[in-house]
Each structure stands twice: as structure tokens, then as C-alpha cells.
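Run log, item B.
One chain of 154 residues. Sequence copied directly from the ordering sheet:
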Amino acid sequence: MAGGRAARRLWRLCNLLMAAFFGLAAAVQVVYLVPAALTLLVSIKPSITDNGVWRSLCDLHSAGCVVGTIALACSLFAYTQGNILHEEEGRELFGLVIITIWMSLCRSSAKNPLGGVRLIAAVVVALFPFVSWLYVYVNKEMRASWPTHCKTVI
């Protein structure tokens, strides 16, 4: 089963990428600490998703992210006049959505190993934060609208 082995390796690599993303993001937003730890554990030992403590932490954090996503979305749609990515809350909203999607993919991997469409979704989600960071870094217009404290970070 070379295909199954390759899919498992790709899944672990995606988790390692997401653990790196969440870890870097945790340096500025503490909400990323839990997904960073949970995802790192999955990259080391994918079967950890069967563990009750892991699943409970995942569910609790995901529920909090869903509540935060709804609150931020309501606020953004009520008060934002331009591109929501130009607003700090808009970027936080997308971060919470990424956490929720990734934790859902990790949680579902316990019952069925990821393959096919779900593995492709995992690769896309794992690459999205890095492609977004590259876009923001290259987009001078977006960087010009940042508050001063954002211009001093990497």
C-alpha cells in the first residue's frame, strides 16, 4: 500500500506545517497555542486523535473558535466599510476559521484516515496561511494601511 503510506506521510507533513503556522501565530495571538500543541501531537502520532483528552481539548477549543468567529463576523459585517482583510479583526476571523477547519480535519482523521478530497482539502488549508502571508508581505497597499505595531513584526 504505497499510496496509503504516501497519504499518511502527506497528512503528517500537513500537520507539521500547521503546527509551525499555529506556533508562529501564537507569538502574537494566544488563541493559537492550543491548536499548535494539538496539531504537533498529531504530526508526531496521528493516532492521538483517538485519545479522549485530545478530543475534549479539540472540541472545547473549536467551540470557542466558532463563538469567536460568529462574534467577529457580526462585528465586521456591521462596521467594516472596506476589505475585511485590511481590518485586524478580519484577519483574526480568518485565523479562527482556519483553526476550526483544521481541528475538524484532525478530529475526523481518527475514524477514517484522510485520503482523496479530504487530503486535498488538508493540503490546501495547510498551504493557505503561508500563501496568505506571502500575499500580505508582497502587497504594499495592504501593508500601508497597517497600524504601526503591525509594521514592526516580520
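Observations after the first pass:
- The chain has a mean pLDDT of 85.
- The first helix runs from residue 2 to 26.
Flagged for discussion on Thursday.
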